Amino acid sequence: DAGVIQSPRHEVTEMGQEVTLRCKPISGHDYLFWYRQTMMRGLELLIYFNNNVPIDDSGMPEDRFSAKMPNASFSTLKIQPSEPRDSAVYFCASSPRVNEQFFGPGTRLTVL
Amino acid sequence: GESVGLHLPTLSVQEGDNSIINCAYSNSASDYFIWYKQESGKGPQFIIDIRSNMDKRQGQRVTVLLNKTVKHLSLQIAATQPGDSAVYFCAETSGSARQLTFGSGTQLTVLP
Fold first, then answer.
1. Which residue of chain A comes nearest to B51, CA vs CA?
2. For residue A1, pLDDT beyond 80
């Protein structure tokens, strides 16, 4: 198994631009999580899905952030418009059952 | 007060020595705990887990100890190797909740 796949690995964009991060979970995993990691706040859960349905999005910072999971093998996290304070590493993780989560390599986002 | 960034606890050990990484958790209802290892530029990687009905669990070169009375978790790494250098996070969750709450992490550095 290739594990959780994220793209792009690095993204540099200018303030105000739209950013789309992509994730392919491990096949057969019913849960998908989006996290953000910064030096200031550590690892924060943004949103998670169960069977493609968003369950808890209370960690999403504001309306500029949105996430979708159109099918079991693909999810996106979109930031529109992006701001410098959104600069962070964004991780996607998937899980087959209670609690165990497998993380992707992350996308390092820099907003100038 | 105003946060100026996470101050990661650090632990430096000589190669071949044993390492002990500690974690205090706050939720007395937490009943499942995981240790993750995060190497530079990578996503967190599952190391070992433990449920609250246990106080000790062993893996390959790693042991997790749980003290529910004082809400303390520790990770012991035997015969620490250079490849063990990383940031180690504890994570907790409770009941049917899907969300993991991550600690701030400890930076382990293995000295030659």
1. A99
2. no
Q: Which of B87, B111, B81, B80 is nearest to B8 (CA)?
A: B87
**Which residue is closest to B105 within chain A, CA to CA?**
A42
Kindly state the tokens that stand for B3.
């946060």
Taking contacts as CB-CB distances below 8 angstroms, the residues of chain B near A4 are 43
Say how many Å lie between the first and final Cα of chain B, rounded.
Answer: 39
Predicted confidence (pLDDT) at residue B1 exceeds the cutoff of 70? no
Q: Is A40 exposed, middle or buried (0-12, 13-18, 19+ CB in 10 A)?
A: exposed
Q: Length of chain B in residues, anyone?
A: 112
B100: nearest CB among A56, A99, A104: A99
- CA gyration radius, chain A: 13
Q: Is the predicted pLDDT of residue A13 greater than 50, yes or no? A: yes
A105 neighbourhood in chain B, CB within 8 Å: 41-43
